[in-house]
Each structure stands twice: as C-alpha cells, then as structure tokens.
C-alpha cells in the first residue's frame, strides 16, 4: 500500500499493536451461565485468532505483540511468529500494570505509536483498523484515539502517540478515563459497530450469532460446536448489555 506524499500516514511513526491476553481458561466468566469452562476457553482462543488475523500483516502495523503469562497464548505467538512479553518478566501483574509497562518499554525502544487491542473483538476487520489508524494520524501529536464498547463505558481499542502519553486504566468506565481532556493531547473517539462488538455477556454472544460474520473463526467454532443450535433453542430472555 502506498500513500500520497502529503498523507499523514506517510509521516506516521512506527506503530506496534499490543494485545493483552488473560489465560484462555480464565476468561469470559460472565458467559458461565450459557457456556461451559471448556467452551469459554475455546471461544477465547478463536476470538484471539480472529483479532490476530486482522492485525498480523496489516500494512499500517509494524509489529504485533501479545502480553500474557499463559503458556497456551505463548504457543499462539510462536505459531504466528510474533513476540509475547511476560508479565513476570516485566515485573508486573495484572492488565493495567502490564500494559503500562509494555508502553514504557516500547517508548524506550523508540516506538512512536502504541495500539492496544483487546482479544475479544471477533468482528474487527482490516478496513476498520485502517480507518481507525488514519483517524488517529489526522491529529498532531501527542494524540489519543479510543474505540469504545457498545455502551460507551469500556475501551476496546486505544491508540496512543507516544505510547506513554496516558496512563492506561482498563476496567469499569475506562472510556471516561482514557477520553478525559488532557492539556496538549488531542483526544478523539472512533465509533464503529465492528470495533464496539466485544464479547463479554450472553447478550453479546447472541448478537454475534445474529450477525453470523463470514470467515470468522469465532462464529465457525460456535457453529461447529453446536452452541449456535443450543442457544437458538434457549428461549430465556437475555437482558440487553448495560442492564445485566
């Protein structure tokens, strides 16, 4: 892919995508009412595969990095020929300390832009990522661009130039934290159905099944495993996200 000489992407600093991953067997506890532990683990693995299919080889991303201590996640990194940094090796524990430590290390190594992407975005596409990065680089640096979740509370993707321009604080109401006005920092919000569609609750999973995205390993797993058929026969009312 080539860009005009006056394109901001022509002058963009190096960009690394960082995907922090909780252990496959630990993730998606809020789906326990409809999925077994084995099913949740397999779904987490499939969703990460979908995210990596988008990020790896993307023309606007220089490197993809996983952050995890799970041996199974490290195996995925090895299969994809990408790096995986250990929380233990960085001397931290937990999502936010790990992401902030990775951001500092990348800044120290001269990386200009960090994009934190959560691994539960099975509907994400290369086109959406392109639009998000282009939006980010429309602004003078330092800059922050956030793609929130569907209810405007969480931060599904956060781009930061330089990587330490903000302190990352994922969790409840992280979007409000990451998008808070900061002196001298351009803060932008990017809304898109595909980047909003993280999978945390039964309602999220039902919405993924309703959309039936083609070519996605997550939906293929749900179909092959019989989960789609099983949930189609479950007539219990599922509360919309934000009411659970």
Describe this structure in words.
- The protein has helices at 37-55, 71-80, 87-90, 95-108, 126-136, 174-178, 193-196, 202-211, 217-224, 227-232, and strands spanning 15-20, 63-67, 83-85, 113-117, 143-148, 155-161, 186-189.
- By secondary structure, the protein is of the alpha/beta class.
- The protein has a single domain (8-196), classed as Spore Coat Polysaccharide Biosynthesis Protein SpsA, Chain A, CATH 3.90.550.
- The chain has a seven-stranded mixed beta sheet with strand order 3-2-1-4-6-5-7, with helices on both faces.
- α1 runs antiparallel to α9.
- It is globular and about 55 Å long.
- Residues 1-11 have low confidence and may be disordered.
Question: What is this structure's SSE topology?
Answer:
Layout (H helix, E strand, L loop, with lengths): L14 E6 L16 H19 L7 E5 L3 H10 L2 E3 L1 H4 L4 H14 L4 E5 L8 H11 L6 E6 L6 E7 L12 H5 L7 E4 L3 H4 L5 H10 L5 H8 L2 H6 L12
Parallel strand pairs: 1-2, 1-4, 2-3, 5-7
Antiparallel strand pairs: 4-6, 5-6
In short, what is this structure?
This protein is of the alpha/beta class. 37% of the residues lie in helices and 15% in strands.
What would the keywords be for this entry?
244 residues; alpha/beta; 10 helices
CATH architecture: Alpha-Beta Complex
From the spread of the alpha carbons, the general shape counts as globular
Strand proportion: 5-15%
Strand order of the largest sheet: 3-2-1-4-6-5-7
The largest sheet is: 7 strands, mixed
CATH-assigned homologous superfamily: Spore Coat Polysaccharide Biosynthesis Protein SpsA, Chain A
Low-pLDDT stretches are: 1-11
In N-to-C order, the SSE pattern is EHEHEHHEHEEHEHHHH
């Amino acid at each position: 892919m080539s860009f005009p000489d006056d394109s901001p992407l022509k002058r963009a600093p190096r960009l690394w995508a960082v995907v922090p991953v909780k252990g496959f067997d630990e993730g998606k506890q809020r789906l326990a009412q409809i999925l077994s532990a084995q099913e949740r683990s397999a779904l987490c693995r499939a969703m990460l595969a979908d995210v990596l299919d988008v990020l790896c080889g993307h023309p606007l991303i220089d490197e993809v990095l996983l952050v995890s201590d799970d041996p199974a996640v490290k195996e995925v990194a090895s299969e994809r020929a990408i790096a995986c940094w250990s929380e233990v090796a960085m001397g931290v524990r937990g999502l936010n300390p790990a992401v902030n430590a990775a951001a500092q290390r990348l800044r120290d190594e001269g990386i200009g832009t960090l994009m934190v992407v959560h691994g539960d975005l099975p509907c994400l596409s290369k086109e959406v990522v392109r639009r998000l990065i282009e939006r980010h680089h429309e602004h003078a640096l330092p800059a922050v661009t956030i793609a929130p979740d569907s209810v405007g509370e969480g931060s599904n993707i956060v781009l930061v130039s330089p990587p330490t321009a903000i302190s990352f604080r994922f969790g409840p109401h992280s979007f409000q934290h990451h998008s808070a006005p900061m002196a001298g920092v351009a803060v932008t919000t990017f809304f898109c159905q595909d980047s909003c569609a993280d999978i945390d609750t039964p309602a999220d999973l039902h919405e993924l099944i309703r959309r039936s995205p083609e070519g996605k390993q997550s939906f293929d797993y749900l179909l092959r495993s019989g989960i789609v058929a099983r949930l189609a026969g479950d007539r219990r009312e599922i509360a919309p996200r934000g009411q659970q």
